[in-house]
Amino acid sequence: MTAHLTDALLERGWVVDTTLFSREDVAALRVACEAEWRDGKFHEAATGRAEGQRRRAEIRSDSVLWLDEARPSPALSRYFAILDEIRVAVNRQLFLGLHDLEAHFAVFPEGTFYKKHLDRFRDDDARTLTAVLYLNEAWQPENGGQMRLYLDEDCTDYRDIEPEAGTLALFLSGRFWHEVLPARCPRLSVTGWFRRRNESLPW
């Protein structure tokens, strides 16, 4: 089930999949995300980590809700189970030593964005593989909100990934710059990062 993912990650470091999560899986996650949003449980996203965290709306303007794997809903249990299958498969073929997953719901209200960045803190290289699952039913290109994944070091070659429900994007966190283009209507996703224990990475 995951061989095509690991093959692509081994070959080029990124992959987009539309097969692992069923329509029912995605619908359940969307309902859960929308319910938490209505209940006011999200907070404005920040940049940096620990004491260095700051809200910088000129860089990112989304809101997030961190997920607790120890107390998941049925929808999130399914999400965590599938992501763990990916972790095991990637470790088996790519030897990345992925240990755990941190994840959050992300909501981009109309007009919000996230400027070009890496998913790796300057002083911590634990985040190794990024996984973004989109929850937006019947999303159209004119709605904006695409993730622009830069494929080269100069950030001249890129692929725009539509945030359509059931689309899962995986890429090496410290290697690929990316951004979220301005959304023209509310955009929902689950974003996760597989982490490893050791600090030195080969790229």
Automatic annotation (TrEMBL):
One Gene Ontology BP term is:
cellular response to hypoxia
Q: Name one Pfam family in it.
A: 2OG-FeII_Oxy_3
The Gene Ontology terms for molecular function here are: ferrous iron binding; L-ascorbic acid binding; peptidyl-proline dioxygenase activity
**What PROSITE patterns does the record point to?**
FE2OG_OXY (PS51471)
User: Where in the numbering of this chain does the Fe2OG dioxygenase domain appear?
Assistant: 97-196
Q: Which cofactor does it need?
A: L-ascorbate
InterPro entries attached to this UniProt entry: HIF_prolyl_hydroxylases (IPR051559), Oxoglu/Fe-dep_dioxygenase_dom (IPR005123), Pro_4_hyd_alph (IPR006620), Pro_4_hyd_alph_FE2OG_OXY (IPR044862)
> Which SUPFAM superfamilies does this UniProt record tie to the protein?
Clavaminate synthase-like
Q: Which domain of life is it from?
A: Bacteria
* Keywords linked to the UniProt accession: Dioxygenase, Iron, Metal-binding, Oxidoreductase, Vitamin C
Q: What is this protein's name?
A: Fe2OG dioxygenase domain-containing protein
